[in-house]
Amino acid sequence: MGYFRLPKKLLAVVLTGALAAGLAVTNAAAFTDTEGHWAENAISKWSENYGLITGYEDGTFRPDNSITRGAFAGILDRFLKFRTASSADTFSDTAGTYWEDAILKLHASGVYLGNNGKALAGSSITRQQAVTMIARAFGITASEYAYMPYSDADQIASYAQEAVGEMTGRGFITDCFDGRFRPTDPITRAEIVNIMNNMVQVLIQTTDACSGNVSGTVMVNSAEGASLVDMHITGDLILAPGVTGEVTLTNVVVNGSIRNFSGVTPTVVKTEETPSPEPEPEEPDIIDPEAPWEEPAPGIQPSEVYTPGETTGEYLMYSGKPYPVYADAEPSRLYDGDFYWEGDRLVYAGDEFETRFGIDVSAYQNRASEDGTIDWEAVADDGVEFVMVRVGLRGYSSGSLNQDAFYKENIRGAMEAGLETGVYFFAQAITVEEAIEEAEYVLELLKDCDFDGPVAYDWEMHDASYRVYGTSPEMATACAVAFCQRIEEAGYDAMVYAGQYVSYIKYDQGALAPYLYWYPEYKSASSEKLSPSLYYQMDYWQFSSNCSVNGIGGRVDGNLQFIR
């Protein structure tokens, strides 16, 4: 939270080139046939935001038109930039055709296999053929995510079943509105764009330094390489086969996997040990409220700390898996039409809540400010109504407890400026005893401080380098409850900070319902959806790490408080 600076320049581009030969570039804003289409947002995103999707010279996009196998090979080749090609005599029908080069490169990569020695480049490509080729191109193979909910699943060819199930389970196929996959139907231009839009959120095609937070997957296909600086990527980082230049990752956190299809080994640079603002480990565990807990180990057990929350019998889907809906946790009452931008701040326009704008700060903001001091009077004059101050942290690898170098100064300054002031602690507890230790440490740091806001428990994880990696959902929930119980025993309001991964997979929302909830999900001017995507209603929403506030050097996290 607040550890990553949003872009000096975030250059993101997407699916490039024509969807068929000879198409002129036309922005979706000018398309005469996409308004109201189900894929309009995806088409508009790649045209208006990135300017690289194409339409026809007559101003149409023709979203429901099919495309040929050869044209589809051209899309994948432009997207991934394959380097090696099979010999010209691989297929008996490609010599001299428009798509010959792309087809031969995809064949060399094991993506385009042909049929009885023919490429059939001029034939329409079916949905099952296209999905299978995409899965091959991106190295997507069967896993526990595979999901086949279609009423016509028995009609899917055996060669395509693994790809269709996996692509569906990962949430990449979202166009089966009637419950049918329609495997032998020709795939349409809109359906192709929609799948690519679901798979890759940002495509980097430049060597210029890129920085910032990306919700989703980032792909680099710049042949000359790329420089990623101070980035937090909640999905995967993909290096395309066509990348040959140096790729440098400086202070980059990838919640998913680095999927490297290039021959380049990325250079990883860490200038300081900092925790991730939004946790999302690689392999989630499903919370089954009916399943027995594991054999107790020495120490305080989760069953001694909390009672599992009651569930409604309904499930929500996250990362292709079902998770139970908790009866005591209030569903979200926030909608897309409720928000709009004023500069770099989101404003709530709904009528369900009153809201206040606030920020959260740590030593990082002090060090970015003149003389290491935040001008809190200027902060208050700039419309900030509350602040959350980091009081300390437990090292995510060392496990040591540390205070924030500026926490007393920040609490005092914010309070004197008339701002409601709360605090948060970056937690890494792996036992109930450690969570209580963290709470006691926070209370000791705060014993001489006057403040009037909540005390937040910020338990985060990323990968195996984090000491909390592999902590069971029961223990993670028990740690959060134990911390909050101790804080409230001391007379303060307790709050839990957690992103989607921890919220759904590691936390029992029923057990945490008595406490305030603080949820991070960053939005930007290019966001298609401005409301938070968490199923449950939060009390505080950290909507950006890119806000500019007078009195603070650099950027700062922006938050909205929802007052019932």
Short structural description:
The protein is of the alpha/beta class.
Molecular structure report:
By secondary structure, this protein is of the alpha/beta class. It is elongated, with a radius of gyration of 25 Å. The strands form five sheets. The chain has an eight-stranded mixed β-barrel with strand order 13-14-16-17-18-19-20-21. Strands 1-3-5-7 form a four-stranded parallel beta sheet, with no helix packed on it. 23% of the residues lie in helices and 21% in strands. The longest helix is centred in the last third of the chain and has 17 residues, at 473-489.
Indicate the topology.
Elements: H1 40-49, H2 69-80, H3 100-108, H4 127-137, H5 158-169, H6 189-199, E1 202-204, E2 209-214, E3 218-220, E4 226-233, E5 237-239, E6 247-254, E7 258-260, E8 267-269, E9 311-318, E10 321-326, E11 339-342, E12 345-348, E13 354-361, H7 363-368, H8 376-381, E14 386-394, E15 401-403, H9 407-416, E16 420-427, H10 432-446, E17 455-459, H11 473-489, E18 494-497, H12 500-506, H13 509-512, E19 516-520, E20 540-547, E21 556-563
Parallel strand pairs: 1-3, 2-4, 3-5, 4-6, 5-7, 6-8, 13-14, 14-16, 16-17, 17-18, 18-19, 19-20
Antiparallel strand pairs: 9-10, 11-12, 13-21, 14-15, 20-21
Helix pairs in contact: 1-6, 2-3, 4-5, 10-11
Strand order of the largest sheet: 13-14-16-17-18-19-20-21
Shape: elongated
- State the distance separating the first and last CA atoms: 25 Å
Helix percentage: 10-25%
- List the uncertain runs: 1-29, 272-296
The Rg value, from CA coordinates, equals 25 Å
Q: Output the structural class.
A: alpha/beta
Mean pLDDT: 86
How would a textbook summarize the main sheet?
Answer: 8 strands, mixed, barrel
